[in-house]
Amino acid sequence: MTPRRTLGTASALDVSALGLGCMGMSEFYGTPDEAGGVATIRRALDLGITFLDTADMYGPFSNEQLVGRAVAGRRDEVQLATKFGNERLPDGTRVGINGRPEYVRAACDASLQRLGVDHIDLYYQHRVDKTVPIEESVGAMAELVEAGKVRHLGLSEASADTIRRAHGVHPITALQTEYSLFTRDLEDEILPVLRELGIGLVPYSPLGRGLLTGTITAESGADGAADFRRSAYFPRFEGEALARNLVLVDNVRAIAEQKGATPGQVALAWVLAQGDDVVPIPGTKRVRYLEENAGSLTVELSPADLAALEAAVPRDAVAGARYGDMSHIDA
């Protein structure tokens, strides 16, 4: 079974050491696959991967419903995380980032209804609303804890200063942000603050949005026209940047072959090795990829292996910004 880890100290949440990101089951990374998504979630639970991540904006709204159906009858096994803040209309139109207290309360109630549960284990602010003091947003989130609707609070893509201010209002259990061999900027300021305050780290895109699996090439790898990765929104998948990044993936592949593992397994093992307070949430809608990701838990990396990986993918060698538009990131 999957080992366990603890997120947070002041408000501690016990979760599986590896989580499952559910976003791609409904949107962004190719054709939605509800049946495949439900099967993948249920297989995850059988493997002891019980930390599930969704958000109201995925679909929009339909991903929470999918997750709710998949965990029906097994709620007690699951640590359920969802997010608010990226406001969208039912037709998919993006309204903007919303951290107003009244919206926080309404979004939580709507998520509970879609998920079909009476509480959310970890409730994140998906993006920081720079027009609303973080103290007001987190204050409203804290009210949800007091009401029993939410057990633990999280932030996503928040700056070090925002994390400090939020934690001063109510204990923050986890920060969700992008972190992988391809994205390590949080190591400079954010990770030290998390460790100082006793806040766990939940890396999303720990496989570099699939690049580090070694399955994406310059000619193939996108999952149809609906795969949002092959757009200007993700510069690392474009032209010359993609060519340079695939060279780095080949470096990881060479190390993986020596370990008898896949590139993705070694990349995930590197993230897992960054601390017992780190719980990555690789996303997939296919059982076979879930099972491959679970195999990362048995990949042992020595100090020499870790050094080799970091030499194979130097921090400044990755080409392209992680988003084409970084304005939604709190900095």
From TrEMBL:
It is an enzyme of class 1 (oxidoreductase). Residues 18-312 form the NADP-dependent oxidoreductase domain. This is Aldo/keto reductase. Its EC number is 1.1.1.-. GO terms for molecular function: oxidoreductase activity. It comes from the Bacteria. InterPro entries: AKR (IPR020471), Aldo-Keto_reductase (IPR050791), NAD(P)_OxRdtase_dom_sf (IPR036812), NADP_OxRdtase_dom (IPR023210). Keywords: Oxidoreductase. It comes from Nocardioides jiangxiensis.
